[in-house]
Amino acid sequence: MTTDFNATKAMFDLPDGVIYLDGNSLGPMPKAAAARVAQTVTAEWGQMLIRGWNQAGWMEMPSRIGNRIAKLIGAEEGSVVMGDTLSIKVYQALASALEMNKPRKVILSDNGNFPSDLYIADGLARTLGEGYELRTVAPEDVEAAITDELAVLMLTEVDYRTGRKHDMARLIEKAHAHGVLVVWDLAHSAGAIPVELARDGADFAVGCSYKYLNSGPGGPAFIYVAPRHQERARPALSGWLGHEAPFAFDLDYRPGNGVERMRVGTPPILQLAALDAALDVWEGVTLQEIRAAALALQDRFIAGVEAACPDLELATPREHANRGSQVSFRHAEGYAVMQALIAEGVIGDFRAPDILRFGFTPLYIGPDEVDRAVQILARIIETKAWDRPEFKARSRVT
Amino acid sequence: MTTDFNATKAMFDLPDGVIYLDGNSLGPMPKAAAARVAQTVTAEWGQMLIRGWNQAGWMEMPSRIGNRIAKLIGAEEGSVVMGDTLSIKVYQALASALEMNKPRKVILSDNGNFPSDLYIADGLARTLGEGYELRTVAPEDVEAAITDELAVLMLTEVDYRTGRKHDMARLIEKAHAHGVLVVWDLAHSAGAIPVELARDGADFAVGCSYKYLNSGPGGPAFIYVAPRHQERARPALSGWLGHEAPFAFDLDYRPGNGVERMRVGTPPILQLAALDAALDVWEGVTLQEIRAAALALQDRFIAGVEAACPDLELATPREHANRGSQVSFRHAEGYAVMQALIAEGVIGDFRAPDILRFGFTPLYIGPDEVDRAVQILARIIETKAWDRPEFKARSRVT
Q: Which Gene3D superfamilies does its entry note (chains A, B) (predicted)?
């Protein structure tokens, strides 16, 4: 183990008294991000004005930062580009894969997938019209449901509620044996667990940067297109910055080189600046080390909670190979329990109907924080501290 | 005239020695934007963490700020929402309009439209398949080409190269008489000229915030859906934040209320914070005053340049009613001329093949800046100061 997690922890600015177990929803602020964003606003936008597109390298940020993320997900140089939101990138990946796999028309996913992915797939199938169909099965039935009938298998590697993890290599292998292309959503994988897109032969992947990559609220998404597909993949959202020569302003669209064609409109420079600075945290850190340390934290949390809180039911698989970087417990009053926890400085989140989610990353969480979180949760459960009207009143976002 | 443009000018932080005539490409930094973004990063993201979605009102920003922009484009409360990029919003508006106007399948636009709009329309037509078609005519032929065959008329009100302006009310009236829905791109209109979407009966409109609205590089786009269409318009990009109940995480998509359904993924909070602060500039300013003062600045610039630089040919219509807020001149060596101007602190931009663009807004430009810009341009033309290798070498973005 070469990574000094005390050093990575010092790179974040966490509020006093907070144990932050919600990096799977919104990563905390790296100190460097604040300084970089301020510089981008005042020195670049403020002083360079329009010249920032050249002088500050704004135009290249989506590709340059894409290459930084590629290293964290086992992707080839030149295969990842940043932009838009995860939903938009799902649409692009799915539309490209469907077009490449004509005349097949069925998308398979699972009912543990993040609903937005399913909504996007459904909207695309509806737009494409006759015969196009989104089919969902239970996560454990995905493998058996892969047949020659499918055009695309679209899966989120790690379930946003339970933390259950699919076996990416195995599912890709079976899908390819049946001529099916696979689109992976890495929202809960990137920066959390080792991902080997190139080694495993992935076709397309998408993900967001504001969870384990700590880019801040609304940070841009990424899209991966395997090099072997790049010249065939045609983005359904054919925007000018995905054009071969954006500043020629030709009337006809010609897709850009490689993954650049997946760019659409003007990139969000302030958000990209935050992300770029946030990625400095990863210099010298390997995902293998992160994974080993995160599993130890999770195991410690599970053992502590199960010993102290028999009311809580583990929703996350026990086997290391089958889970991502979060631990989820079920509780009938989960919403109120989470509000009580947050009031005491232990920040996780709640997902309907009864899931308490806790994300773990050794970048800024250590065994001490885990032990304190367990103690506070145990006290809340034991004293029924959650049973108060202010904790039961639902707000829109949790 | 009640607006004190000295007061608005003091709200911007422009570099010394710069005359900024490129607000039609990227507006300059309002001082308040820098402070607001810093606060959003350090006090909100840094200290509130995930709680910022509730405590700092992040989740409501796309609608709340949409309502602020609605006031600048003559739109009804609850008819505008922010997000994504202009290209994505064009796709959503166009897809909705096409679906509402089945079985018609032809989109009409003009060949002066911003190419990205045409690329997006072409990509959508291609995705929809058989029979769908994008047709383009010259801008002056649009009115005559409106027939019962068309599904949608998609136009940018102000031409990004020449500054020519369409007659919105007149074209909407003819389109509606033929059962055609109209999608307006207000990229070069919002914050520059009076727009009356509600009064003129517009169906859909889209625009960007980083030009005359000064939101910074990559600021989010907006979309307008007329209230009468909101419950029928179905967003092709059906993302979770456009769902009726995003945090119910239902597996089936149900479009949200009103224009909220046009939201897609997680909104870019840092960019929205910059925009929100930038909009404070508009408190107490009317578009009618902006328009009158901008036309005076443009006329002054045109008269000065035409008197001093016979080599330059005006590309912008002379009639006030037919132009937006920019003035364009043609010059065979336009690229080099613009580089020479920028080197002297007069920042406009160049659009292939031969267009020099200059944007005018009285928010931070006065008659003195116009006169100095004319003098510098005149000297560059007279002395052929542009005829140097470093001004002729093309960079990617100008």
A: Aspartate Aminotransferase, domain 1, Type I PLP-dependent aspartate aminotransferase-like (Major domain)
- Rounded distance between C-alpha atoms, residue A303 and residue A338, angstroms: 19
| B335 Cα to chain A: minimum distance (Å) | 12
Angle at A54 between CA A34 and CA B348, to 5 degrees: 110
Query: CB under 8 Å to A27, separation ≥6 — which residues?
Result: A210, A211, A212, A213, A214, A215, A216, A278
Q: At residue A57, what are phi and psi to the nearest 5 degrees?
A: 70, 25
Q: Which residues contact A34 (CB under 8 A, 6 or more apart)?
A: A13, B38, B41, B42, B46
Which of B302, B310, B325 minimizes the C-alpha distance to B382? B310
Phi-psi region of B393 (alpha: psi -120 to 50; beta: other; left: phi over 0): beta
**DSSP-assigned letter for residue A50:** G
Interface subset of A 24-63, CB within 8 angstroms of B: 25-26, 28-29, 33-34, 37-38, 41-42, 44-47, 49-54, 58-59
Stretch (H or E) spanning A357: strand A355-359
**Could you tell me which CATH number the domain at A57-282 has?**
3.40.640.10
Residues of chain A with CATH 3.90.1150.10: 5-29+286-392
Note whether B217 and A45 are within 8 A (CB). Answer: yes
- Say how far apart CA B356 and CA B338 lie, in whole Å: 7
Q: Does domain A5-29+286-392 have CATH number 3.30.70.20?
A: no
Q: Do A218 and B270 touch (CB under 8 A)?
A: yes
Per residue of chain B (398 residues), what is the pLDDT tens digit? 567 899 999 999 999 999 999 999 999 999 999 999 999 999 999 999 999 999 999 999 999 999 999 999 999 999 999 999 999 999 999 999 999 999 999 999 999 999 999 999 999 999 998 899 999 999 999 999 999 999 999 999 999 999 999 999 999 999 999 999 999 999 999 999 999 999 999 999 999 999 999 999 999 999 999 999 999 998 889 999 999 999 888 889 999 999 999 999 999 999 999 999 999 999 989 999 999 999 999 999 999 999 999 999 999 999 999 999 999 999 999 999 999 999 999 999 999 899 999 999 999 999 999 999 999 999 999 999 999 999 998 865 54
* CA gap A188, B132 in Å, rounded: 38
* Strand-strand pairing, A133-137 and A326-330: unpaired
B-chain residues near A26 (CB < 8 A): 45, 49-50, 52-53
Of B115, B347, B397, the CB nearest to A251: B115
**Residue range(s) occupied by CATH 3.40.640.10 in chain A:** 57-282
Q: How far is A219 from chain B (nearest CA, A)?
A: 6
C-alpha closest to that of A276 among A39, A114, A43: A39
Whether B316 has a binding-site annotation, put simply, is no
Active site residue B392: no
Our answer to whether residue B280 is catalytic in this structure is no
| Predicted complex ipTM | 0.97
Annotated binding-site residue? B116: yes
Per-residue tokens: B54: 């509730």
In the stretch 210-249 of chain B, residues with CB closer than 8 A to chain A read 210, 216-221, 235-240, 243, 247-249
Are B178 and B142 contacting, i.e. CB atoms less than 8 angstroms apart? Answer: no
Closest Cα in chain B, distance from residue A317 (Å): 21
Topology, domain B5-31+286-392? Aspartate Aminotransferase, domain 1 (3.90.1150)
For CATH 3.90.1150.10, list the domain ranges present in chain B: 5-31+286-392
- The C-alpha atoms of residue A267 and residue A13 are separated, in whole angstroms, by 27
